[in-house]
Write a structure and sequence with these properties.
Length: 381
């Protein structure tokens, strides 16, 4: 072969290899992260209890801040659950209402997981201030005490299904279909008291969709709210795995090659800028438009509402219904006060959920959670 031709072919081969390497690198960067499950503790706590605490930590929580802490008393079979005040969202949730809802969801997962392992469980919640709307300075600690007793056993079929639903339950930010839910799916949502469903196209749906976008726009244009969100956004797999909290690409609904581009083109400074805020507004507009409906959960006590929320969400998961909390309206005091009359609700609204179905696989919980040792301490010694 002439030397010149060999050089040309060699150059093409190098180019192909370079392009192929770049594509492979992008594909690797776009893969979902794998998060190890870490349940080891420096003190003796039965493995089923440690596993139950892990499942509890898969509960929904704002910005994936994981604002819970647990003091374990193995000698008397007791878990005291409180709030980590350093992890509260003081701008968008100054009263701690949503934090207590997250604590309630954590409690519900914990109770159902312990029961799946064969324990008998008793729950005591601290009485909250009037109307369940405490100031941050008055948040109870511990907020919930969970007692477990009996001999643990391997979960039976029903128990395994419960634990599987916890690992599938996740906040779905991908596009949903506006097609109506099936009768079975609607039954799963309406089976619980305190839930009102507004289907796509109804007056209630339009009110919630319009109000949600307006409330999100107000937050997106608030420098303090921008900064609070930016504090919990993660801009690489490495950062997400190092922190084990917050919102990496997957938890924004960004996957595949789009995830790669997001990480490559977004800096920390971008997160508080107008372009990023406007992208969030546009994404929210598309999300509310692409939904089968909104489910509104009412209740006077946010901890109880959190337990109800998790029961509702697990039922939706089993029925193949995707869920995304969109409670920006409730983070605006004036809008929240107007909501019961506007929607003819019979109680205090605690959560607004976008619901629907997605094409392809249902998805699962990313499992980006802190090791137990970071939020569980020994109260016995």
């Amino acid at each position: 072969m002439p030397r010149k031709r060999r050089i040309v072919l060699g150059g093409l081969t190098a180019l192909v290899l370079a392009v192929g390497g770049a594509v492979l690198g992008a594909a690797i960067k776009g893969r979902p992260i794998t998060v190890p499950k870490e349940t080891d503790l420096a003190f003796d706590l039965p493995a089923p209890v440690r596993d139950s605490l892990y499942y509890a930590s898969l509960a929904p929580n704002s910005h994936n801040a994981q604002m819970w802490r647990v003091t374990a008393y193995p000698s008397r079979g007791e878990l005291a659950i409180g709030l980590d005040l350093d992890r509260l969202l003081t701008v968008t949730d100054p009263a701690g209402r949503e934090a207590l809802i997250s604590l309630g969801a954590f409690t519900e997962n914990l109770v159902q997981a312990l029961e799946a392992y064969g324990y008998q469980v008793e729950v005591t919640a601290t009485q909250l201030p009037a109307a369940g709307q405490p100031n941050s300075a008055d948040l109870p600690s511990p907020a919930v005490t969970v007692r477990y007793a009996g001999q643990p056993a391997e979960p039976d079929s029903a128990g395994r299904q419960t634990l599987a639903a916890m690992t599938l339950r996740h906040t779905e930010k991908r596009p949903m279909s506006a097609q109506p839910l099936t009768a079975t799916q609607l039954q799963a949502l309406n089976a619980m008291a305190g839930v009102t469903y507004f289907e796509h196209g109804s007056d209630g749906f339009t009110y919630l969709a319009t109000g949600t976008v307006a409330a999100y726009r107000d937050q997106a244009n608030d420098p303090a709210a921008r900064q609070e969100l930016a504090n919990w956004l993660r801009l690489s797999d490495g950062e997400a795995l190092a922190q084990r909290d917050g919102l990496p690409a997957e938890q924004l609904g960004i996957t595949g090659i789009t995830k790669t581009l997001y990480y490559l083109t977004t800096s920390q400074a971008d997160l508080t800028g107008d372009t990023f805020a406007n992208q969030g507004i546009s994404r929210t507009e598309k999300q509310v438009d692409g939904a089968a409906g909104f489910a509104v959960l009412v209740g006077d006590d946010p901890i109880t509402a959190g337990r109800d929320l998790e029961r509702l969400w697990l039922a939706a998961t089993r029925a193949g219904v995707s869920v995304q909390p969109m409670s920006q309206l409730l983070e605006d005091p004036a809008a929240a006060a107007a909501l019961p009359a506007a929607l003819n609700l019979s109680g205090t609204p605690q959560m607004i959920l976008r619901v629907g179905t997605v094409s392809g696989s249902y998805g699962e919980n990313l499992g980006l959670r802190r090791p137990l040792a970071e939020f569980v301490t020994n109260g016995d010694g």
